[in-house]
Amino acid sequence: MTFARVEQRLVHYRIKGAGPRVAFLNSLGTDMRIWDAVVERLADRFECLLADMRGHGLSDAPAGPYAISGLADDTLGLLDHLGWGRVHLVGLSVGGLVAQEIAARAPARVAALALLDTAARIGEPAMWNERIAAVEAGGTAAIADGVIRRWFSAGYLSREPDAAAGWRNMLARTPSAGYAATCAAIRDADLTERLAAIRAPTLVLVGDEDQSTPPDLVRATADRIAASRFEVVAGAGHLPPAEQPAETARLLALHFERSHP
Ligand SMILES: O=C(O)CC1=CCC(=O)O1
């Protein structure tokens, strides 16, 4: 386990592999383990940085609300701490919002961008406020069953009940304060007008059964990014790195190998 202190907060991170540098940002209610099966397929060609987003995993979970700009500061701070200048950047869902913010704000830091199951704006404020209230009242376990049904395809849920139960454990063990504070960051984010500032070659991909950020929503974000390519991953819900790691790794490797570091 490796930890760094960035802006006084503890960040849990791990580096694996060798080659051009790739940084991975996790989604709401998950941690760096969401990337394990992808990184295992990429580490022979890329140096991969995994970090638990603020409020998640073993990173600190200070009281919120958080903001996407502050979460972007966390990532840039960790890259500075490690001496990593320019990277390929991969973000899933809220990690994708953070990645959009970094690519728009600090284009020199991003060689290529990959946005997975994300959009410039995710959900409606009322839905996020309801989710925050439910988590504040009953903890993350209170919302876990509903969220899991949106995370995975129907086929995965019936084929892999134990794996789905394991991912549910990850969600239910996310600190309530960190989860609710991250919901507030998503609620308050609308990066639509920032997308025109993204210059990096961008792969935008989504699971064909994603119910949290459905393919049409994700495609609309891709259409606003100048150098984007849109891909749909078959047999996946909101978490293609967990459900279809081989195809996700293949698409990421192809994209980064085409883009110069
Ligand atoms: O929890 C969900 O519904 C899915 C999700 C939305 C933003 C995120 O990071 O995950």
Mean pLDDT figure: 97
CATH level-4 homologous superfamily: Alpha/Beta hydrolase fold, catalytic domain
CATH class designation: Alpha Beta
What letter string, H or E per element, gives the SSE order? Answer: EEEHEHEHEHHHHHEHEHH
The strand line-up of the biggest sheet is 1-2-4-3-5-6-7-8
Q: Helix fraction?
A: 40-55%
Characterization of the model:
It is a single chain. By secondary structure, the chain is an alpha/beta fold. The chain has a single domain, classed as Rossmann fold (3-Layer(aba) Sandwich), CATH 3.40.50. It has helices spanning 36-42, 68-82, 94-105, 125-138, 141-151, 154-159, 161-172, 176-187, 215-223, 240-243, 245-258, and strands at residues 2-6, 9-16, 21-25, 47-51, 87-92, 110-116, 202-207, 228-233. An eight-stranded mixed β-sheet has the order 1-2-4-3-5-6-7-8, with helices on both faces. The chain is globular. The two termini are 27 Å apart. Bound molecules: the ligand O=C(O)CC1=CCC(=O)O1. The ligand O=C(O)CC1=CCC(=O)O1 binds at residues 27-29, 93-94, 122, 147, 150, 186, 212, 238.
How is this structure best summarized?
Helix content is 44%, strand content 18%.
Set out the fold topology.
Elements: E1 2-6, E2 9-16, E3 21-25, H1 36-42, E4 47-51, H2 68-82, E5 87-92, H3 94-105, E6 110-116, H4 125-138, H5 141-151, H6 154-159, H7 161-172, H8 176-187, E7 202-207, H9 215-223, E8 228-233, H10 240-243, H11 245-258
Parallel strand pairs: 3-4, 3-5, 5-6, 6-7, 7-8
Antiparallel strand pairs: 1-2, 2-4
The structure holds ligand LWBT4IAB.
Ligand LWBT4IAB binds at residues 27-29, 93-94, 122, 147, 150, 186, 212, 238.
